[in-house]
Structure formats: C-alpha cells, structure tokens
C-alpha cells in the first residue's frame, strides 16, 4: 500500500511538473521561481548581517539598526550584481561590421568594486583601447563590460585581465589594451593607511603587446590629462 501511495504521489507530482513545463506561462513560472530564489538569498544575507552586528557588540533591536541588516543585504546584492550578467547579454546586438582599423579609445570610465580580501571598496578609472578588425562595438558597451566585471568580488589584476579578454573574445580585434588606476580602501582605511597610494594595472593583447609604437601611442593618449 505504501508503494502504491508513493507511486500515486509521484504520478501527481510528475503530472504537475509536466503541466508547468508545457504551460503557455512557462516563462512566467521561471520568473516567479527566480524571484522566490532571490528573496530567499536576500533573507539569508540579512540574517548574516544581523549576526555580524550582534557579534560586534551592537544592539540590533535599537532604532537605528532595525532595518540595517536588510539595507546592507540589498546593497551587497547591488554591489555584486555582475555575477548575474554576461558580456553576451549586452553585446549581441551592439557589434557592427565596419571598415575601420584605427585605434578606438574610451578613457576615464568610472569603476567601483569590492576587494575580495577584505570586502571593502576600491575605485578608480579604466581606460580601454582596441584596434578593430572589421568589427566595432557601441562605445557605451565598453563601459558596460567594465561594470559587469567590477560588480563582483575582485582583485584589480584579475579585473583588468577579464575586461581585456572579454573584449578580445567578442570582437576578435587586432589588439586590446586596458589600464586601470584605482585607490584601495583596504590600504587607506586599514593596514598601512596610505592616503595617497594608488594602484595601476595593465593588460596588452595582440598589437598592443607586440608593437611598441602602438603601445606607446595608447599610453600617451590615455595618460595625458
């Protein structure tokens, strides 16, 4: 009897699952499921922040902190929203055939990220250049690529390489160059506490790596104020 009941239950569950998969609102079902999962994640992060505040000696029931765990959880989700985005999502309709082979530079792209070692911010500017190989991309999309990868837990060296690699894979250009200048609050607020220290990283691919003249032109155009 138990076996038959289990079979019957499984049959109903399978039928319901098939109905959901085949229903005309399947996209809506997935969206509702995704929203439910996001709500669960937000709740878990909120509880974690409550624990952190308590362990620091704070009274999480006092008026000023009543909603702080929730606000902090939402802020952390926003600051790491790059995990939910891909370059394919933003570039599919923004790459165009164009007979242009001269250097394209977008400089002074603001970026904000979180150091994965201490979960404190680092921020600065990214400078990007590429040498088109019969393909160009909408200029704002370069800034979007910076946003995708900077809105993750990062180290500056990896961030620089990820941006360059993403552009290279999407456009297959003759060369890509990325330079990032950033200030790390883990150096300013804690540790050595050096207020004026900044970090510069670069990645040169293709012609920017192989051709010293091309590299020098990029650096001269980028670093001039």
Give an overview of the whole structure.
The chain is an alpha+beta fold and 225 residues long. It folds into 2 domains: 57 residues, GTP Cyclohydrolase I, Chain A, domain 1, CATH 1.10.286.10; 138 residues, GTP Cyclohydrolase I, domain 2 (2-Layer Sandwich), CATH 3.30.1130.10. The protein is 52% helix and 22% strand. The chain contains 9 helices and 7 strands, in the order ααααββββαβαβαβαα. The strands form 2 sheets. It has a 5-stranded mixed sheet with strand order 5-2-3-6-7, with helices on both faces. The chain has a two-stranded antiparallel sheet with strand order 1-4. A hairpin with a 5-residue loop joins strand 2 and strand 3. The radius of gyration is 24 Å and the shape is flat. The N terminus is likely disordered.
Short description:
By secondary structure, this protein is α+β, with helices and mostly antiparallel strands.
Q: Tell me the fraction of residues in β-strands, as a range.
A: 15-25%
Mean pLDDT: 88
Can you tell me the CATH architecture of the largest domain?
2-Layer Sandwich
Counting structural domains, the number is 2
Poorly predicted runs are 1-9
Structure annotation, total helices = 9
| Mass-distribution shape | flat
Order of helices and strands: HHHHEEEEHEHEHEHH
Largest sheet: 5 strands, mixed
Overall strand count: 7
Question: Strand arrangement, largest sheet?
Answer: 5-2-3-6-7
Give the CATH H-level superfamily of the largest domain: GTP cyclohydrolase I, C-terminal domain/NADPH-dependent 7-cyano-7-deazaguanine reductase, N-terminal domain
Radius of gyration, in angstroms, nearest whole number: 24 Å
**End-to-end span in angstroms?**
81 Å
Level-1 CATH class name of the largest domain: Alpha Beta
Helix fraction by DSSP (H/I, runs of at least 4): 40-55%
Q: Structural class per helix/strand content? A: alpha+beta
**At the third CATH level, what is the topology name of the largest domain?**
GTP Cyclohydrolase I, domain 2
Catalytic activity: GTP + H2O = 7,8-dihydroneopterin 3'-triphosphate + formate + H(+)
GO biological process, one term: tetrahydrofolate biosynthetic process
Domain GTP cyclohydrolase I: 45-221
EC number: 3.5.4.16
């Amino acid at each position: 009897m138990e076996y038959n009941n289990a079979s019957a239950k499984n049959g109903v569950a399978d039928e319901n699952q098939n109905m959901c998969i085949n229903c005309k609102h399947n996209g809506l079902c997935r969206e509702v499921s995704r929203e439910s999962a996001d709500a669960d994640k937000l709740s878990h992060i909120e509880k974690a922040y409550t624990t952190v505040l308590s362990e620091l000696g704070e009274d999480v029931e006092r008026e000023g902190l009543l909603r702080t765990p929730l606000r902090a959880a939402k802020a952390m989700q926003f600051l790491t929203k790059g995990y939910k985005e891909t370059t394919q999502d933003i570039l599919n309709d923004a790459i165009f055939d164009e007979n242009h082979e001269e250097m394209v530079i977008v400089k002074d792209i603001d970026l904000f990220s979180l150091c994965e070692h201490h979960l404190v911010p680092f921020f600065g500017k990214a400078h990007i250049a590429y040498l088109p190989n019969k393909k160009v991309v909408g200029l704002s999309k370069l800034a979007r690529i910076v946003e995708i990868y900077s809105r993750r837990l990062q180290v500056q060296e990896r961030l620089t390489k990820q941006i360059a690699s993403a552009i290279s894979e999407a456009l297959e250009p003759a060369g890509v160059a990325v330079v990032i200048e950033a200030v790390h609050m883990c150096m300013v607020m804690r540790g050595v506490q050096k207020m004026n220290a900044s970090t510069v990283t670069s990645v040169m691919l293709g012609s920017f790596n192989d051709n010293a003249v091309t590299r020098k032109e990029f650096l001269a155009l980028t670093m001039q104020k």
